[in-house]
Structures are given as structure tokens and as C-alpha cells.
């Protein structure tokens, strides 16, 4: 982020974490909050639908997370693909414009937050809001091919035997370039369910000569492998060998698995570790909804956070079904962080 002289290079995360004291807070669930604000998201585009219908709601949710203490906000592009928009009748140009818009909205929210901080007489937490001018990164979300299919296959990683690294690269290629050119600080390749998609992303970053850092986050349903059954060790190794990947970790995975997954990731990577689990609720792909009362409460979620930090997580946030209240609690938990504490080698 330019105002804080953080370079858009592979050293971005190292410098960012140096400025934030060794740890950083990521935002929480977007769709959950958009629905709370009145958005109707039962659509193959999911939260990306709001890029069409109510961009102001996306901006408001980004702002809510910044005021809860998030240092990194993730764009509303997880399920936004050129192919998905074209299936809705949009032209290629319109589709690309919507991808760009997702980044612009997040950047606008960051600027609005900074303006609010400048006007505020309080420093730190005022009126229940965290109003503190600090380095803030905008991460452009790239959801998996399974997210585009909107059939829950990002939670299984089962793309069929016919799917190849080459085909995945062609699916993501233009989308990734458009997002990169929109001006985010990094690209967040999220909920990566299998090894071939990780390989596709790594090759794409190199082939397209994109001068932008990225992180890879995988998901797991057993606390050992990624959801497809592929080896976590092999998946993280792909991220470790890619120079533009500046952090690697886990998202959209039940909190109870995160501790052991961090320990497994540490054996493979020297990059900062990022974790943003979901609430632990189970997703019903057939009904396209989260099963109520299957997750953990905020206080239980937060009870894990210090342990994740202690075993090596540098970036911590929430995914599906977490809220600004969750993120504020993470912020408070990590606010006593010390750059002198024993941490993962950056």
C-alpha cells in the first residue's frame, strides 16, 4: 500500500508484517454480511451478484471489517468469473469491468476508512470502532474452478478425470490478469481444493509475468489433506517454490483442524502462514445453504486464535459465517502481539 511504502514485489508481505508488528488481521465472511444487510444471494454468482445489484453494500461490509480491525480486506470476486457473467448474458467487456469494479470498491472503502480516521479525535477504538491509520492491503479474491461451477465442488476438489492443469490455466488466465491490472496489493487464490489447481495458479503467475504478489490458501475437511485427498505437503510445496507467492495457508476449514494444519505447513514452507477458517458450520451443496447449529460460537473460535499465533500463523481472519464481531475479537486478541515474539521465519 503506497502510503506506507510497501513494495508490490515478493517482499510485500515481509515488509507489511514488519510494519504491523509481526501479525495481521484478515477480514471475515462477505456473503454472510451482505445477506444481513438485505442482499439475496441464492444465485450461481453468490456474493459477486452484488457487484451488479448493490455495490454500495459491498463497500459498507468492507468498511465494517476495517472498523473491526482488519488489516487486509478481500474483494467480492471469489465467485466472479468472466464465464459466469457471460452465462448471465453479459459481454466480455462488461464481465471484465465487473471484475475491475470488485477491486475498485475495496480500494474506495480503504480510502473512506482513512478519511474517517483523519476526522476522528480518538485513536484506537472509538465508539466501538477501530479507527487507526495503518497499512491496509486489498487482496483480489480468485475462487477455484469449483466455485464457478456453484455445485459445492470447491469443497470436494473433484473436477473429474478429464480436467487438466492446462484447462484450468485457460479458465483462470484472463480473469487473473484483469484483477491484477485493477490495482490490488495482492491476489488471494482461495479455497484451493486440489493439487492441479495450485499448479495451474503457479504456472499462470509465471507465464503471464504478473508483477503482483499472491497467497495460496487450501481447504481441508479432515485436518490432514486438502479436500480432494491430495497431499497438503505437495500442495504447499507448489506454493513454496513459486516466487510470487508471499504467504500460504488454509481457509474455509473448521477451526478445530487449524492447529495441526499450521504445524504441517511449517514443515514445508518458510513463507508467512495465513489462516482464515470458517465458523465450522457444514455447507449443504444441494440446498446451497449452511446447516444451522453445526459451527462454533465466536468465543470458541477466538479461544483458538492465540494458539494459532503461537504455533506460527502470521495472518489470521475468518471465512464463511464469521462476522465483524469475530474479526474485532481477533484484533483484540492479537493487539498485544509483539514483533519480538518467537515467530515463523519470514
From TrEMBL:
Domain of life: Eukaryota
Keywords, sorted A to Z: Metal-binding, Methyltransferase, Transferase, Zinc
TM stretches of this protein: none
Swiss-Prot/TrEMBL cofactor(s): Zn(2+)
List of residues binding Zn(2+): 252, 319-320
Domain Hcy-binding: 12-334
A UniProt-annotated Pfam family: S-methyl_trans
Entries under InterPro entries matching the protein: BHMT-like, HCY_dom, HCY_dom_sf, Hcy_S-methyltransferase
Protein's UniProt name: Hcy-binding domain-containing protein
